[in-house]
Amino acid sequence: MAEYRIDIFYSGRRLPAEISKEAITQEYSTFLEPEIRKHLEMDSRAFSPERGQYDAGVLLRTFEGYRNLFLWLVDRDIFIEGMNFVFGCAIRMKGAILSVYRLNSEELIRKETVHEVGHILGLGHCENDCVMRFSNSLQEAIEKPGHLCSACREKLQRMHGI
Ligand SMILES: [Zn+2]
Ligand SMILES: [Zn+2]
């Protein structure tokens, strides 16, 4: 029985949301019940004309006060201050935004979904051969595995009492 419901939103195509839903079901079935909600427009105030990217922090404010966990898949490039770009950005036990802009395969969308959702559930970055390994280039994302290591899985079970 899943513990929490997670609502998936998307900007652009719906397909990445379907891929994410499947990835969440496969990796986190004991913790989460994913549901695709709807298309969501990206707030133009989050766009930085100098960078040609959207500010992930500003976009996340769209969900202030939202009561379920959420995952928002966007099709434009995103950044946070101090980084050239990010694949995603998560707030623990709230939700995450994930950009598919640089993710050119289904496999990468799955992997980065599992990574961001791991952050939502409270995991930090991991040094093991693990999907929670930090990656800030496409190559690093390609090279890391698509699943949690046993240490991260045990940590999750401890944190959520399952
Ligand atoms: Zn991360
Ligand atoms: Zn790990």
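^ zinc ion complex. The domain at 4-159 is CATH 3.40.390.10 (Collagenase (Catalytic Domain)). The mean pLDDT is 96.
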